[in-house]
Amino acid sequence: MDHSAAVGAVRRHFDRLGEQGQGHPDAEASDRVSREVHRRFLRRFVPRGARVLEIGAGGNRFTTELAARGCRVVVTDPSSARLAAHERRVRGTPAERSVLRREVLDATDVSRYADGEFDAVLAYGGPLSSIRGCAAGALRGLLRLVAPDGVVVASAPSLLGSWRQQPPGLDGRPEPADRRYRWSEVVALVHEAGGELVDGSASNWASAGDPGVLAHLAADRDRWRRFLDHEVAACSEPGARDGGTHILFAARPA
């Protein structure tokens, strides 16, 4: 399947799902951990008041966080149905004032935007993992959009971390359609795209274990807060970056 056909297939898939496919972002304790790790990583690199291009915003996982930092956000997604879901979720909240506009966007073609138009690009979740064969070109395009002192903050599913959670081939399920990365491949991707790697992290390292234990921790506010602090610190260790469900990274133009 060529790229344009693949993009069309992804767009039709999410258009069919609409908001139904979003689920509640914090339905499970592990989802809450993932959101918190992503949130804290975002806060390290996206400055207050920044002009941000949000790639693959879906039903609003991080627009609200950006708005809380006083950012001005251009919200994009490959699916018009998901953008409509985003508008329904954000409309009427204070975060809506931070949304400059919403646009359907294929992350591999950002030619509508000028060089250095944004202070930061946020590409959390699946944008880079759903692009097969042209991820470096897509990341190069995102790096073009940020100012010389700007940053691209992104995440992608972890190959080795997913194996850790579910050994491949043991449950009879087919291999996932999305691209999954090793940390070394993320480093190579940034280099190939002409960027400079700033930092990285895992997401859901210790929290990829027993869900029952995690739910028990989540029921105690003080223990949960301490656990999150330890989890975020552990995820940032270089040796942990392949061990979580996702790999997060920040890159700037070289």
TrEMBL record:
Keyword Transferase assigned: yes
Key words, A-Z: Methyltransferase, Transferase
GO MF terms held by the record: methyltransferase activity
Listed InterPro entries: Methyltransf_12, SAM-dependent_MTases_sf
Region of interest (Disordered), ranges: 1-33
Superkingdom of this protein's organism: Bacteria
GO BP term, pick one: methylation
One matching Pfam family: Methyltransf_12
Limits of the Methyltransferase type domain: 53-152
The protein, known as: Methyltransferase family protein
Lineage: Bacteria, Bacillati, Actinomycetota, Actinomycetes, Pseudonocardiales
